[in-house]
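Predict the 3D structure for this chain.
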Amino acid sequence: MSVVHKKLKETLVAFIRIHGKFSDVAKSLEIVRNASGNKVVGAPIVVHHWLVQDNDGHDIDVCIPVSEEILQGEVKSMILEKCEAMTMTHSGSYESILDTYRKVTKETYEHGLPIAESGREVLIVFDADNPEKN
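Done. Predicted structure below.
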């Protein structure tokens, strides 16, 4: 797979912010999905905030695109701002994603683009029980 430059559109999402690791995403994703009901309009998105890290992990926004605002318990809505992104499709378990990130980072620097303090991952296929299928 190759790295692709994309212009991402502004996206309304329902979300929960957690502090942890990617292995904590599945539980939160279920909460957001249940709160969003039939308002879901896209694949889940995980926003990693790399600057807020410690031994327990980092801040992560677990998001699902929705057709209208959600405010139910700990699930809220926000707008993911439009932006330019260098993207690549990763297949397989999350443990092997570092190689994908290295390729994207290299291409980004080669094009003279800045690296953001946070990153988005769209979970096109997400199977917590069978991560090799992701």
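The longest helix spans residues 97-110.
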